[in-house]
Amino acid sequence: MNQYDYIVIGGGSTGCAVTGRLAVGGERSICLVEAGGRNNDMRVRTPGMMPFLRGSQNYRFETVPQKGLDGRVGYQPRGKGLGGSSAINAMVYIRGNAWDYDNWAAMGCPGWAYEDVLPWFKKAEANERGADEYHGAGGPLFVSDQKWTNPASRDFVQSAAALQLTETDDFNGERQAGFGIYQVTQRKGERWSASRAYVEPIRDQPNLDIRTRTIVEKLVVEGGRVTGVAIRKGRSRETIYARRGVILSAGAFNSPQILMLSGIGPGRHLNALGVPVLVDRPAVGSNLQDHIDYVSSWESESRVPIGNSREGTMRMLGAMLEHRRKRTGVMTTPYAEAGGFWTVSPDAPCPDVQWHFVPAMLEDHGREKVNGHGVSLHACVLRPESRGTVRLASLDAAEAPLIDPNFLDDDRDIATLREGVRLSHRIAEAPPLADYRLTDRHAVDLANDAALDAMIRSRADTVYHPVGTCRMGSDDEAVVDPTLKARGVEGLWIADASIMPRIVSGNTNAPSIMIGERCADFLIRAEKAV
Q1: 93 and 26 in a common domain
Q2: What's the domain range around 248?
Q3: Sequential DSSP letters for 44-70
């Protein structure tokens, strides 16, 4: 079969939600095209295996050298396979701040204010605490409390409280500000990816064709309408067609890449590469935003935190056996077990820094082995002012694009991050964390702006939330309109984190799923209007 009602490009968090909602009922034929595999094995399902998902499940992108980071090349892990980044992330369930969505509406995205999106977050959610004003209980995405957190994570929350920083048990409720233990996208001790939520339960339906390990080379555009998709699996090439439409959900890096390979993007850039320009759209691949993040790390004499020692190794081996038998214990950890949101800038409309506490020592995204026991504390700038780009490096769709987040280009970002790092250290020096006798692994004079900035530029990097490269808006330059319909061509919708006009104040997985829910609804409504 090579003709369907809809083709969904990308089986990540958003693409899975779109697919699941469109396929329910069986009256529409859907083809889901995903470059990676199924992502349904126990390595993916076991939360504590997250640091080891660096093979076929991870694109392992890199940035171009970052002038704001001393010319360093940054690491950009993105999920590959069904579930996308929800299959490799830290499972933290955060929606962002209500102000973010009200700001989207004020920027020219009517229908995306907080009161508009909250019902869709609730529809997607199956929170184990039950339904209330802010949460849903009947959706496909399971959200759970952590039951086996490390004592150091709980002590982090108490150290923040010792500084009169509010304690909270719900970052997605009435008030985001505060510190606490994160809820996670897990069910009964296993990772609950977007694929497990939306696709796996219906994968055997006859109206759903799932094509994994299949690369999308370009969109097929005929007479100003996207009618199909050119795909490649191994050495075999094929064109598949969509009667009603194509939904591009390949993420903040791959969605603009596919558009540009199809002749939709910045005309000057496409001309330079010999790509025929169908729609000159400079905003494609522009407006890249990401949360710049600094990880403070301390070694501890305590053996309570997770660590690389004989004792720590034996503990983890026992935890693996426990999880295999009962799906309980330490291997349910998302590692980023606790955290918080707080405002460090006097003019910020809502919290401008987020913290992720990890009861282990981290270096280089966990890729560098660190001996001993200790803790780490991420601090990230929630609404960075710096803007970057995604551009084509090659005309081969299998090759990574050129990714330039342009980190710390705007001085306001490092000013915010500087204050976030200082607060990280104040929390670590307060009891009960102070009782762990922590030794700073990257000591610097925190009172010296220049010295602290130099340390930040030498070590900071992403906390894995790229967005904005196919931005939504009502202006003529926007890539999609507020119903996610692409401007300049018919038959194409774009739905993933790339459509965010401005990055949300928090982790991006839950918002990406919400975007998928909304896209499916827009398409179904459009059908009924015909």
Answers
A1: yes
A2: 1-69+78-110+187-289+465-530
A3: HHSGGGGGG--STTB--EEPPPBGGGT
Length of the chain as a residue count: 530
Nearest-Å Rg of the Cα atoms of the chain is: 22
Q: 375 and 315, same structural domain?
A: yes
- pTM for this structure? 0.97
Judgement on whether residues 282 and 210 belong to the same structural domain of the protein = yes
- CA 195/CA 211 separation, integer angstroms: 14
The structure tokens listed for 248 are: 């591009």
Element at 233 (helix H, strand E): strand 225-233
Residue whose token pair is 């919708």: 493
Token readout for 64 is: 């171009």
Average pLDDT over residues 270-288: 98
Q: What is the pLDDT of residues 56-76, one digit of tens each?
A: 999 999 999 999 999 999 999
Query: 48 pLDDT exceeds 80?
Result: yes
* Catalytic residue IDs: 465
Q: Is residue 142 part of a domain?
A: no
pLDDT by residue (tens digit) across 436-453? 999 999 999 999 999 999
Contact in structure between 317 and 306 (CB atoms under 8 Å): no
Tell me the pairing of strands 279-280 and 402-404: unpaired
